[in-house]
Hints:
Blueprint: E1 6-7, E2 14-15, H1 31-37, H2 52-70, E3 75-76, E4 96-97, H3 101-104, H4 109-116, E5 119-123, H5 128-138, E6 144-148, H6 156-175, E7 177-178, E8 185-186, H7 192-207, H8 218-231, H9 234-242, H10 254-264, H11 266-269, H12 272-283, H13 287-293, H14 295-307, H15 316-324, H16 329-336, E9 337-340, H17 346-361, H18 365-376, E10 387-392, E11 400-403, E12 408-412, H19 413-422, H20 428-441
Parallel strand pairs: 5-6, 9-10, 10-12
Antiparallel strand pairs: 1-2, 3-4, 7-8, 11-12
Helix pairs in contact: 5-6, 6-7, 7-14, 8-14, 8-15, 16-17, 17-20
Amino acid sequence: xxxxxxxxxxxxxxxxxxxxxxxxxxxxxxxxxxxxxxxxxxxxxxxxxxxxxxxxxxxxxxxxxxxxxxxxxxxxxxxxxxxxxxxxxxxxxxxxxxxxxxxxxxxxxxxxxxxxxxxxxxxxxxxxxxxxxxxxxxxxxxxxxxxxxxxxxxxxxxxxxxxxxxxxxxxxxxxxxxxxxxxxxxxxxxxxxxxxxxxxxxxxxxxxxxxxxxxxxxxxxxxxxxxxxxxxxxxxxxxxxxxxxxxxxxxxxxxxxxxxxxxxxxxxxxxxxxxxxxxxxxxxxxxxxxxxxxxxxxxxxxxxxxxxxxxxxxxxxxxxxxxxxxxxxxxxxxxxxxxxxxxxxxxxxxxxxxxxxxxxxxxxxxxxxxxxxxxxxxxxxxxxxxxxxxxxxxxxxxxxxxxxxxxxxxxxxxxxxxxxxxxxxxxxxxxxxxxxxxxxxxxxxxx
Length: 447
């Protein structure tokens, strides 16, 4: 039987056997990774072990796991540590994962370097949030580029942005109550784990410089600014350290909760009336749920953003722009394009570049958003993004073509000129604009 080699989709290290029986046949993974993944879609046994050495490796891992089990070295998964805000019920059987540091100790320097390099990860439409959060919870600072199963496109500029955008929307729709437009986060229905995962997504989005399709209520960014400032406060750090870290902050005593409330919102909680209100909440046994549902949720999100090594931002508006980008595209988009050509003269290139800039000035907000997403994978424009307008003399059945991997709008001059000859009564500017809009409504809108 020929050897089957590739990269494990869970830990991204080399694997030489194939998981033939996942529910959706999603690809290669180690047996130990499959056992630990606990995918909601289920994982069954691995087959087709191709070498005696591979079989020996699996047997060694199984034997080591059994030794661990006998020594009671299992530790709780992170998921079971964070309690749900509000209505929380302790699960009857908490999930576990194996402390496999004994295997990591055997990893040599070259293997570690390879593991930390940017990885190409396969995902599927509708499952982006599962794949992204599994990676981010395991290694928040690791760089990844994504591709969709069945597609060869792999890039940070388009496909990866689309994956993170879809993952964020899926996470919000699954875990948060969203009201109105723009969307508003209702923290009373957010688990602390969901709040932390939200921070992982937002931190990575801010780090790779993209803009998402969702607009979150401005009050969310105001609270995030307060939470970010709180993380640098020595009193907060002391309370966190004394209580065993972030995961234990939902078990703080009442004095520490009041202290964090006053640090988070000094103007609101430092006067006598507010302090009296907090003391009344202690009597009613409502202080801890209130703290968990509000301030602690924002603390978890801010801690997760920090965990991704996202760049430090001065205020909430800077965070909003880093996540949502700039949505006033009428001024930004025309200025972002740089015309270039390799097989056509500069005068012709400049002529069509002028037609593009003129057309974009007449585009409405929806049309500019469609073009922005087609070229960048994001509906909002990231300041600093450079877009290309490539004028080509090659023959083509298309007039325009968008390439998100290179943020390139390709214009085929020959195709346009042949159509212009067929439309003798048409104004060249009008025809250029009409064809670009038609492409937006057809091909670009499907990306």
